[in-house]
Amino acid sequence: MKKILVIQNKRIGDVLISSVIANNIKKIFPESHITYFVYDYTTGVIENNPNIDRIIAVKDKELKKIPNLIKEIRKIKKEKYDIIFDSYAKFQSRMMCLFSGAEYRIGFKRKHKTLKLPFYTHPINFLDAKSKICGKAIEDRVNIVDAVFPLSDPNDVPKIHLTSEEKKYNRIEFLKKPVLMFTVLGSTIPKSMPFDYVAKLIDYITSNYNATILFNYAPHQKKDALKIYGFCKNKEQINVDIYEDSIRGFIRLINKCDLLIANEGGTVHITKALNRPTFTIYSPYIEKADWNSFEDGIIHESVHLLEEKPNLFEEFTRESRKVIEENPEALYRELTPEMILTKLKSFLAHHLKNAKK
User: Assuming Cys at both sites, which of 8, 13, 102, 257 could form a disulfide with 18, CB separation 3.0 to 4.6 Å?
Assistant: First the structure.
C-alpha cells in the first residue's frame, strides 16, 4: 500500500481545489493511504472526502517557528511516505520534502526562483495558461499528478461531501425564498469591495426582487459587516441573525441557499463544489484565469476590472499585481456598482425569474 502525503498550506479555496490531487491519485493507487497536511482553519472543506484518509492540521503561525517546523519535518520523515505532492511550494513544504526520504517528491517549480537544493525528484512547471473551464489553478493541480502518473480520465471537479445529517440543515426554512448569500467581505481587506459599493448592489437586489439576503464574513469581520448593513436600504429583506462561524456550518447553510454573490475567495469555491450558482467579484490584483473555475456566464458568472477597463492596466504581471495588492482601493473604486450590475442584472434575471417585484 502506497503512503501518500499532499501538502497544501494555504487558504480555504486552495485546499479545496487541491482535493483533486487525492481524487486523481486514488485512481492510480486505489489501495493507497492519503494524508493531507493543511492549516487548521481549512480542514472543513476536505472533511468526509472518501479519497482522503487522514488530515494533519497545523497552526499557520506556529509552523513559521523554525523549532516547530523541524518537529513536523521529523514526524514526516518517520511516517516514511512513498509519494509526496507539494502543491504549496514554499520554504516550509520544500524542506519537508527535502528531508522526507520519499521516493517520489513532486512539487511546483516557480519561474522566479531557482531550485538550489534537490527538494523534488520531479519538479513540475506551472502551466503557461488556462486551457479548460476548470481554471488554471485546478489544471495545475491535476497536472502535478498527470505529469508523473499519467491519467486516462482526469477528474478536475472539486466536491464538498456532506453527511446525511448536514443535508437536513433547516435554519432558513422559515425565510422568504429565494435566499441569497452575499459574502460582503473578502478573506482580506485587499480582496474586499468598498463597503458603500456592496450596499448599493444589495439595494438593487432588495429593490427589484422578493428575496432574503444573508451576510457571510469571517467571525472577526462582524463589525465591518454590520457597517455594510448600516448602509443598506430595505433592511427587512436582510437577515443578519442567521450566520455560521465555522466552515462546516457555512457549508450546511450555503447548501440550502439559492445562489452566492461574493468577493473572490474560499466561499466561491465551496459554493461551486456544492453545485450552487455563483457571481464573483474579483479584486483588481487577482489573476482571474487562475481562479474562474467553471464560469460559463450562466451558472457561474464574474466581473473583473481588467476586463471592463483594460486601459487602467499597463501590464498585468506578477510584479504589477503585487503593487496593486499593496493599495488596491483606488482601482477597486474604478469597479463601480453600475459596472458590476451590467453583468449581475442578467445573472439575477436568469436565476430569480419568479422573484421579480
Answer: 8
Residues 337 and 274 in one domain: yes
**154 in a domain, yes or no?**
no
Distance separating alpha carbons of residues 181 and 105, to the nearest angstrom: 41
Q: Residue 324's domain spans which residues?
A: 167-355
Is 157:143 a contact under the CB 8 Å cutoff?
no
Q: How far is CA 52 from CA 8, 23, 44, 108, 164, in A?
A: 13, 8, 12, 21, 19
**Per-residue pLDDT reduced to its tens digit, 91-126:** 999 999 999 999 999 999 876 566 667 899 999 999
Distance of alpha carbon 72 from its chain centroid, rounded? 26
Q: Which three cell numbers stand for residue 354?
A: 419568479
Pairing label, strands 33-39, 54-58: parallel
pTM: 0.93
The answer to the question of residue 250 being in a domain is: yes
